[in-house]
Amino acid sequence: MAILQEARDSVTGGCLCGAVRYTIDFPKGSNWPPQSHLCQCTQCRKQSGALISHFMTLGSSQLRWANPSNGTAAAEPYKEFSSSKGVYRGFCSACGTAFTWRSEETAEEIDLFIGSIDEKWLIGDRTEKVSSESLTEPGVFEKVLSADEGAVGRAICTPQAGQMFVRNAIKGATDARMVGKRFVEMYHANMEVPD
User: Fold this and answer.
1) Does pTM top 0.85 for this prediction?
2) How do residues 73-90 score in pLDDT, each as one tens digit?
3) Phi, psi of 171 (to 5 degrees)
4) Cα(180)–Cα(163) distance, rounded to whole angstroms?
5) Which of 42, 45, 152, 181 is the residue whose CA sits 20 to 30 A from 175?
6) Who contacts 25 (Cβ-Cβ below 8 Å, separation ≥6)?
7) What is the DSSP letter of 40?
8) Residue 81: in which H helix or E strand, if any?
9) Distances in Å between the alpha carbon of 60 and those of 28, 32, 65, 109?
10) Is residue 112 exposed (0-12), middle (13-18) or buried (19+ Cβ within 10 Å)?
11) What are 25-54's pLDDT values in tens digits?
12) C-alpha angle 43-49-51 in degrees, rounded to nearest 5
């Protein structure tokens, strides 16, 4: 399947409980697809509860929080935790959904956890087109999906920027070779793992 090359104007997302919503704007000239990464660092694992975190790097101005009620850039339940000096991890204080990673060193960028993007962008509106009873039928999704459904998800989820903290890979579980470059730690450190 081909990666969607044509950028969308915007993509939406939010948390599990719905208290925090956002829009990602992709103005002309912005990166498309955006640079996405996989990370196996201990802090991402602790924040997300997943062995591998999947996020994309955006310009800070591309991420727009919906209906901020507290006069800040994000909605009231959105909180940040200082996970290390100058580094902040954003989450919903009501349901715990992990949203962002940002550093004071790269204030013009913010990393967004891709799993918080609305399902319609990642896989399409599958559940609205298929009844619960037919979910077990072989090939049911392929019958109802258009050719481009899920194309945005394929574009933003392919980790073109690589995998970080592969030194933390778990043998037999998270050490499989995936798409993209592999880095011992942060991609900024240029410590790429050779093939």
Assistant:
1) no
2) 555 789 999 999 999 999
3) -50, 130
4) 7
5) 152
6) 9, 10, 61, 62, 64
7) -
8) strand 78-84
9) 16, 15, 11, 5
10) buried
11) 998 888 888 889 888 889 989 999 999 899
12) 75
Is the confidence at residue 21, as pLDDT, over 90?
yes
Integer Cα distance of 4 and 2 in angstroms: 6
Tell me, rounded to whole angstroms, the distance of Cα 66 from its chain centroid. 18
- Token pair for 108: 């013009």
Q: How are beta strands 162-164 and 35-39 bridged, if at all?
A: parallel
Note the residue count of the chain.
Answer: 195
CA distance 5 to 136: 32
Question: For residue 109, which of 119, 101, 117, 121 has the smallest C-alpha distance?
Answer: 101
Give the span between the Cα atoms of 184 and 19, in whole angstroms: 36
Q: Is 181 in contact with 192 (CB distance < 8 Å)?
A: yes
Q: Are 178 and 163 in contact (CB under 8 A)?
A: yes
Element (H, E) at 55: strand 53-59
> Residue 141: which pLDDT band, with cuts at 50, 70 and 90?
low
